[in-house]
Amino acid sequence: MKIAVASQNRINITSHTGKCRNFWIYEVNSQEILNKKLLQLSKEESFLNSFPHIPQALNNIQVLISGGIGCGLMNRLEEQGIEGIVTSEREPDLAVITYLESSLVRKLSQPRNRQRRYNRRRDRSQHLHGHAYHLPTINLGKTV
């Protein structure tokens, strides 16, 4: 089985898979890493620029591990039978080892609502003190 790990700086797992051009490719069996090599894509071969396809060099992987995968890319991976995994783990080797042990901590992907994001941008110009985003207020039952 082949596992690709997005790692633009070749050290840590990348959080923006679409723009990533460096991937560690691991050849594994059910228990251990057998081989590891760096795959470097050209800018044109990145997920972002190869839409709606998967980059040819990544067609033979079964799993893609990253720090962030958008909904569109996750759908493209699923269509190709590739398991897309979003994790908070930063170290590529550890991510693969924990994946093989079925203990890799996964982050839930949150679908984006593009219309809502557009409306936020539009509303920003109308917001008096320049902040477009606010942290939610949490009521702890105390009266101030």
Automatic annotation (TrEMBL):
<dbReference type="InterPro" id="IPR036105">
    <property type="entry name" value="DiNase_FeMo-co_biosyn_sf"/>
</dbReference>
<protein>
    <submittedName>
        <fullName>Dinitrogenase iron-molybdenum cofactor biosynthesis protein</fullName>
    </submittedName>
</protein>
<feature type="compositionally biased region" description="Basic residues">
    <location>
        <begin position="113"/>
        <end position="132"/>
    </location>
</feature>
<feature type="domain" description="Dinitrogenase iron-molybdenum cofactor biosynthesis">
    <location>
        <begin position="12"/>
        <end position="98"/>
    </location>
</feature>
<keyword id="KW-0614">Plasmid</keyword>
<dbReference type="InterPro" id="IPR003731">
    <property type="entry name" value="Di-Nase_FeMo-co_biosynth"/>
</dbReference>
<dbReference type="Pfam" id="PF02579">
    <property type="entry name" value="Nitro_FeMo-Co"/>
</dbReference>
<feature type="region of interest" description="Disordered">
    <location>
        <begin position="110"/>
        <end position="144"/>
    </location>
</feature>
